[in-house]
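Re: the request from the purification team.
They wanted to know what the chain is likely to look like in 3D before they choose a buffer screen. I agreed to run a prediction and write the result into the notebook, where they can find it.
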Amino acid sequence: MVNSEELAGGVGVGFTGHIHGFNADAEARLDAMMMQVGRWVEKEAGYLMGHIKMSVTVDGKGITLNLTDLNVGVEHHNRLKPSKEADFNFMAAVVDVNEGDLEHAMVHAMEDSGVYFHIDEHECACGHDHHHDHEHHHHEHGEECHCHDHDHDHHHDHDHDHCHCHDH
């Protein structure tokens, strides 16, 4: 039996993994990330035919985000309470684009989103070397992160025994 992707001559790319620190801000960033991928597909193919989808779940309950029309935008289904960690599935099935280029565009959209992803191991079709681990380091008791506010080559007064800037 032929699926719709094969019948249309399309390509499909997908990722699974975890989101660290899921909340309403992360959901809004996921929306923007999906629109970025959709705009890339439209630029490459001249139109968006297919769909870009994402599910985010915690303990089997979650939300789905769906993009099939750039004029309509990303449709959100259900609600999910903030969580320290959530599972995700992110996929696109579209026509008239190269699979490797689509994967590359999706990875860059994830990187640009500001959401802290950890992508499960997979074999890249895009031919580029990506570091897919986007885990965020944590500070105790709400301590603000200033680890990347300074230049490590010029901070001579920094106590290197207590530096945790590169622990993540």
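For the purification team: Residues 15-120 form one domain.
Please add any questions underneath this entry.
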